[in-house]
Amino acid sequence: MKTLNLDLAEKSYPIYIGQGLLSQGELLTKHINGKQVMIVTNTTVAPLYLEQVKSLLGEGDHQISQVILSDGEQYKTLDTVNLIFDALLENRFDRSCTLIALGGGVVGDMTGFAAASYQRGVNFIQIPTTLLSQVDSSVGGKTGVNHALGKNMIGAFHQPKCVVIDVDTLDTLDDRQYSAGMAEVIKYALLGNLDFLHYLQKNINELMARDKSMMIELVYQSCEDKANIVAQDELEVGKRALLNLGHTFGHAIENTLGYGNYLHGEAISVGMLMAVKLSQFEGYLSVDEVDQVQDLLEKSNLPISISGKIIASDFMAAMSVDKKVIDGNIRLILLKKLGDAFICNDYQDKLLNRVINDFCQ
Amino acid sequence: MKTLNLDLAEKSYPIYIGQGLLSQGELLTKHINGKQVMIVTNTTVAPLYLEQVKSLLGEGDHQISQVILSDGEQYKTLDTVNLIFDALLENRFDRSCTLIALGGGVVGDMTGFAAASYQRGVNFIQIPTTLLSQVDSSVGGKTGVNHALGKNMIGAFHQPKCVVIDVDTLDTLDDRQYSAGMAEVIKYALLGNLDFLHYLQKNINELMARDKSMMIELVYQSCEDKANIVAQDELEVGKRALLNLGHTFGHAIENTLGYGNYLHGEAISVGMLMAVKLSQFEGYLSVDEVDQVQDLLEKSNLPISISGKIIASDFMAAMSVDKKVIDGNIRLILLKKLGDAFICNDYQDKLLNRVINDFCQ
Question: Residues B43, B155: one domain?
């Protein structure tokens, strides 16, 4: 097992990464103060790991309850979070309780927001079971839900007490979900880690075959890159925005096509390629570098174009309600070089329109 | 105008208290960074003060939008907060926007929670227009909504950028609402300020006649008492719990009778008397002291008994879902002496039952 510490003063917490961690109860129990534990999971993950996690906690020592949500980004809503509040109140959970998010990013984001808001804040633990949530959403304390008019528009910064990443759970992940996670892995490489990009390019076939020892390294490197950025800028007033590479484009794709059509990571794959193309049009990247990115995404079985009809003006409208908009200006994350992202406010509108028109057909 | 500073390091903010403040635009504008301003108010307050506040801001300098909510505690729900999110997104409000809560405690609590959660946190300003919100809920950063199973169960700590208290707005407050505010004023005196209690006892007739110069003193003293406690314990891990004197009982009354029957301050009046009675049964207070408290509440035209049938066991059940419950134990705020409250975990259950039975008939 490898342990990474996310350094946030009194809010610091460990991220445990390894195999067989869902057999090690003390990783969880040492971070649980009160007696009441609410496990939040979904209909896909519950049959696989819910009983295992419950048995780890010891029924005698804890009052364990559970909420099993529907699976899918389209359920990441305030109404679904309210189901968690219902369960907490029906079981008389008090401020000393702990919520455990067992599942992918959607479960983690909603459980975290419920923990942030229940009685104005209770403890929670992340047990991410998808590659995407292991390398991205479980780390850093961003929680929240979607609104019909925009993705992740309602939420809170609320850090977990620990993150337990058992890469064995990736065994049960379907190929499409696995590829979606690779999109966020590739993001870390593109935005700030050229060595990691070369490693991914060299080993993409073994990584797609899910070589287990490589999995631990892959997740560790991704979490380390993210933890370093979050430790410098927890509330995203500056550098943390770099983690949104491809996300303003990607959110617009999800929002325009409707949640549930694309997996989040799939939309981010196309979104990153759009950001990379704009970086090329702006003169930062060469055509060859764009091709390298496209090649890596394709070898990860990720989409590189929008499958579905989007009108360019609708796409632009969806982009303008993103959280990266400040006083009407859309801030974008572009690449100066491969492995070197920056926050760009002064791109040319006509070049942005060209990228959107290219992708929106 | 008097200015009080709530000292919370980088989250510190001023509380302006005086007459005619809703004619002084710079009190607001110096705390607004971005261009977008959303005024949240209700159907009662909008006809009285909405246009005045809008004209203060200057339509040319700001993009001003508004949400007018239904008036009443029964509307303090997640669904109503969602109306604020709808308005923010429909008007494309970004992270640099400012929300202004114009109204009583319900408007302030919901606007604050919307500000805490929109895009994971935006700025907000409190303009409380009721006595209760001026002396209590607008100060200290507690925000949130009710759930069918418990009061204020969903929320966040989110501090405003400033609080503008214009006591002239009390001119339009009906007598019942004014008395409800007096309940929270009396609370500060009972829990920690014996001099203030004597002042209230001596001047209750003038105060009920709303002598304007006395109003400013009354609000200032209440806010100062609250600010001192909040500055020591923002997140209520200790001393701040004293501010809940009468609230565990009061919330149970509101919850059992249904929101909208009692005003919050009315329920707190009865709740404080229940806490005072338990303090007497426990041997801390004399019968004469209980009578003094009852007399002051009566002279403030506040209820001293529950008007409506509550079954004692229902009352007990409602108490046990309060936020002051830790690992199954209901913590209560009792009085050692008048003006000296403490957090009590070891009261006798039979004495608590006796109080509940006395009040539940």
Answer: yes
Q: Which of A126, A145, A172 is the last residue of a domain?
A: A172
pLDDT tens track for B329-339: 899 999 999 99
pLDDT value at residue A320: 86
**Cα gap A171→A215, rounded to integer Å:** 11
Domain residues for the domain of B120 are 2-172
Which of A98, A109, A119 is the mutation pick for testing B, counting most B CBs within 10 A? A119
* Distance in angstroms between the alpha carbons of the first and the last residue of chain A: 47
Of A114, A138, A172, the domain-final residue: A172
The kind and range of the H/E element at B37 are strand B36-42
Chain A from 21 to 50: CB within 8 A of any B CB: 34-36
Q: What is the pTM of this model?
A: 0.93
CA B265 to chain centre: 8
Instruction: Measure A154 CA to nearest chain B CA, in Å.
Output: 5
Q: Do B121 and A86 count as a contact with CB atoms less than 8 A apart? A: no
Q: Which of B193, B158, B167, B164 has the alpha carbon at shortest distance from B39?
A: B164
Q: Which residues pair with A99 in a beta bridge?
A: A38, A124
CATH number at residue B139: 3.40.50.1970
Residue A125 phi/psi, 5-degree rounding, is -130, 140
Examine the domain organization and report whether B289 and B309 are in the same domain.
yes
Residue of B nearest to A237 (CA): B95
B50-96 tens-digit pLDDT = 999 999 998 678 999 999 999 998 999 999 999 999 999 999 999 99
Q: Which residue has the higher pLDDT, A72 or B179?
A: B179
Q: Which residues pair with B332 in a beta bridge?
A: B344
Classify residue B172 by burial, with Cβ atoms within 10 Å: 0-12, 13-18, 19+: middle
From residue B89, give the alpha-carbon distance in Å to each of A151, A193, B70, B97, B136. 11, 35, 20, 11, 30
Cβ contact B85–A153 (<8 Å) = yes
pLDDT of residue A258: 84
Residues in chain B, total: 361
